[in-house]
């Protein structure tokens, strides 16, 4: 299903996006060496409930997972890149943490992800990976103009990632959002320009470049959810929800200054 919102829906989409951005900003500021992943999940739940919003993850049970996800946020550490289930792990200095959050507020979903280094360590290779996903995300957003095609976004994202020297997995990528979290169209992180669905005002897209340092192969943890690099290499993930407007893309999950 591809859902097109009308102009009266956009303020609610902005509210959902602002909530997701604010929660992620707060989580990043509270997370440090010694933080347990279960604490992050608990903090997330409290902020969602306080805002009168709903988690998109707790009862989420797609075909690629094993039963309901059962948590409020994805916490992926080091070689984990997607769908990381929070567990009893205490973060250490230099860990690369990705937080992925989707929330429904006012009947509209916003979805965003950030990656950052925990503590004072600054591993150059990890920082370069994070930067590559952020640059690819900005390139994808810039390509998301009304009248463009989904393939234009995919090509823009893939061009940045390839230029940076990273393999690209196309099994998981961006997607439409609206009244539900995962909708069509699928937005691959690599593709050919001029192909695919034609973008139109009212379309909401979650764009999410993610990479693994030296492989494009994933393995699934015993929890049935957490996806890791097949080689044990580090990973990074960045994501924003955008609205296609007549004037171009509007980032809904951009944190306030």
Automatic annotation (TrEMBL):
| Residue positions binding substrate | 83, 182
Tell me which residues make up the Peptidase M24 domain. 14-245
The record, for Pfam families, names:
Peptidase_M24 (PF00557)
| Keywords in alphabetical order | Aminopeptidase, Hydrolase, Metal-binding, Protease
Gene Ontology CC: one annotated term: cytosol
Q: Name one GO biological process term.
A: proteolysis
HAMAP family (alphabetical):
MetAP_1
UniProt subunit comment: Monomer.
Q: What is this protein called?
A: Methionine aminopeptidase
What organism does the UniProt record list as the source?
Actinomadura bangladeshensis
């Amino acid at each position: 299903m591809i859902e097109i919102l009308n102009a009266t829906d956009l303020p609610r989409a902005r509210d959902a996006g602002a909530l997701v951005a604010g929660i992620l900003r707060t989580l990043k500021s509270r997370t440090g060496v010694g933080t347990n992943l279960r604490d992050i999940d608990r903090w997330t739940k409290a902020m969602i409930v306080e805002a009168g919003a709903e988690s998109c993850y707790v009862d989420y049970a797609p075909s690629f997972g094993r039963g309901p996800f059962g948590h409020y946020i994805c916490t992926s550490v080091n070689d984990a890149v997607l769908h990381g289930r929070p567990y009893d792990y205490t973060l250490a200095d230099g860990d690369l943490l990705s937080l992925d959050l989707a929330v429904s507020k006012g009947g509209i979903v916003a979805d965003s992800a950030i990656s950052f280094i925990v503590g004072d360590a600054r591993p150059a290779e990890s920082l370069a990976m994070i930067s590559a996903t952020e640059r690819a995300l900005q390139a994808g957003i810039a390509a998301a103009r009304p009248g463009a095609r989904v393939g234009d976004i995919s090509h823009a994202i893939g061009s940045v990632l390839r230029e940076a020297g990273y393999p690209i997995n196309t099994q998981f990528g961006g997607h439409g959002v609206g009244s539900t979290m995962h909708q069509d169209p699928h937005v691959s992180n690599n593709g050919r320009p001029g192909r695919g669905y034609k973008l139109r005002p009212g379309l909401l897209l979650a764009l999410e470049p993610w990479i693994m340092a030296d492989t494009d192969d994933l393995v699934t943890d015993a929890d049935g959810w957490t996806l890791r690099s097949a080689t044990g290499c580090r990973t990074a993930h960045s994501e924003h929800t955008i609205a296609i407007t007549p004037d171009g893309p509007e980032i809904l999950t951009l944190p306030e200054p």
